[in-house]
Amino acid sequence: MVDRTVLAHQFFTGISRHHLACLAQELAGPWQAGVEGRRHEARGGARRRAAGAGARHQLVFVDRLVATLIHLRHDLPHSVLALLFGVDRSTVTRAVGEIRALLAERGCAVPDRPGLRLRALADVFAYAQAEGVELRLDATEVQVRRPVAGHGGRRAFVSGKKKQNTMKTTVVADSQSRTLWTDALRPGRMHDATAARTEGIGVCFQHFPDMEVLLDDGCLGLRRDHPGKAITPPRKPNKIALPQVHAAREEVRHRHSSKRITVEHALADHKRWKQLTRWTHRREALPATYRAIVGLVSDRTAHA
Questions:
Q1: Which residue from 98, 123, 222, 224 has the fewest beta carbons nearer than 10 Å?
Q2: How many angstroms separate the CA atoms of 141 and 170, rounded?
C-alpha cells in the first residue's frame, strides 16, 4: 500500500491540494446521501440501525475521490489502483462510478461567482449577456472503440473528418480560454451544426437576440439561419475578384481566427487528461467522464 499523501499530490490527481480539499467538502454530503439511498432501496425500507452503525467502508470517501481523479488524469487500470490503495478491484470500480457521476453533475464554474455553475446552454447565454462575455463555440472528437460487427448503428460513430470511430462534443468558451459548457457526447458521424441545433442553440438565439457566438467554417448553416448572431469567417470570393478583395478577406479571417483561438486552447486543456486522448472503455461512460473533466478544468481556470 502506497502512502496516501503521495497519491494525493497534484502530479497524480491533476489538481492542487487546496482544490482537492474543496472538492472533498463539496461532494462528501451528496456521496453519503447517495450511499444511504442505495442501501435503503436495497433493504426495501427505512433505516433500522442508528446513524454511523454498520460495516465501515474499506475505501473512505477521500481515497475514493483521489482514486477517481488518478483514473481520470492518467487512465490507470482499476486493478493498479486497487493495488495502490490495498483494496479489491471491484471496490475501485464501484468508487470510480460513484464519484465520476457526482463530478459530472457539477457543471462548469465561472470567475468571480463562487456559487454559480453553468449546466445548460441557456444558462451560458444568460450569464454571457449579463456579464458581457464573448462566446466561442467549437466541436471536438474523441476516438472510441468500433462497435461490434452485426450490431445496429455501427456506422454512426464513423467520423467523416477523422476517418475513425469517434464521439463528438460541443464546447463553449470565453475570450480567456475558460470552458463554460459542454454538451452530451454524440456519435462522430453527426455534423457540428446539427449537434449545436440539437442542443437548442436556435432557441437561445431567439431568447437572447443581442448575443453573438464565434464559429468556424463548419457551421456555415448556423450563420445562414441566424445572420448577425452566428459569426463565421467570410466565404472565399469569386476567382475573378480583385486582389484587394482577397486581401481584405484574409485579414478578416485572421482577426476572426485570433479571437476564436481561445476555444481551441480550452479544448487543449481537456485533452491533457489522458482519458480524453483516446477512449478505450465503454462508450456509454464517456459523456460522464468528459463532463467530469470539464468541470475540474473549469474550476482551475475560473480561479486562475
A1: 224
A2: 9
Please list the alpha-helical segments (H only) found in 75-200. 78-85, 89-104, 121-131, 192-198
Distance CA 288, CA 277 (A): 15
| C-alpha cell of residue 217 | 467554417
Can you give the pLDDT of all 304 residues of the chain as single tens digits?
Answer: 678 889 999 999 999 999 999 999 999 999 988 876 666 665 666 666 666 665 567 789 999 999 999 999 999 999 999 999 999 999 999 999 999 999 999 999 998 888 889 999 999 999 999 999 999 999 999 999 888 887 777 888 998 888 899 999 999 999 999 999 998 889 999 998 999 999 899 999 999 999 999 999 888 889 899 998 999 988 776 677 777 777 887 888 889 899 999 999 999 999 999 999 999 999 999 999 999 999 999 999 887 6
